[in-house]
Give the backbone structure.
Amino acid sequence: MDCLMTEIDASLAHLVSLAGDRAAETPVSALFLHRWSARAMTGEPIPEKVLFALFEAARYAPSAYNSQPWRFVYARKGEEAFDALLAALSDSNRPWARNASALIVVASKAAFTPPGQEAPVHIGSASFDTGAAWASLALQAALLGWTTRAMAGFNADKARAAVRAPEGLKLEVVIAVGRRGDADDLPPEKQALEKPNARRPLARTAFAGAFPEEV
Ligand SMILES: Cc1cc2nc3c(=O)[nH]c(=O)nc-3n(C[C@H](O)[C@H](O)[C@H](O)COP(=O)(O)O)c2cc1C
């Protein structure tokens, strides 16, 4: 028992309660506190190696039946596809996202043919699983010193046309990826928001045994 406790203590030793401006109620790996979604980005070129490290992290996300419903299209600043995607963003996202190094469309495919079967089945958790892939991508980016910000604020028809999304793919978000830039370069109404935000307390998030009446 003592030996087991020592092992557990050792594995918890790297956990932290504070990182940057964020505090954890229970210590966690600093990565979870360090990742936050900046808007101010430098627009500097992003190496393909970095982009593919992000996709690789996403690739190993868990999914129902290992169906891997996530699909990505990326476009780097300066490319035609980047401008087309930028034009599809909402008026509140376009002004800051133009300084991203890359835009990534995250799509999910709910139709999946399980191994050994001929007909595709509908995977009800395709969006959920794709969200797990996005989280892995964002954490890998943070580990490599890049920031990411997901955007649901885009015109779906324009984005679909920009990346020639086939039927059966649901566009979930567009992600802006870049190196953190200067908050002063953001539109005035966004400048004060350029910092890590807080979270609801754990006591209102995780419950023992059953949900309370008010969640
Ligand atoms: C599905 C999704 C859609 C989002 N859409 C937008 C968006 O359109 N514009 C934006 O500025 N931020 C958007 N965000 C970023 C969230 O506002 C941000 O993740 C949240 O406030 C938590 O902050 P953090 O990521 O810095 O921890 C989106 C995030 C997610 C996951």
Notes: The chain has a mean pLDDT of 95. The pocket of flavin mononucleotide is lined by residues 36-37, 93, 149-153, 173, 196-197 (CB under 6 Å). Helices lie at 2-12, 30-34, 48-59, 80-88, 94-97, 126-143, 156-163, 188-191. The beta strands are 16-19, 22-28, 70-76, 102-109, 111-112, 121-122, 147-151, 169-178.
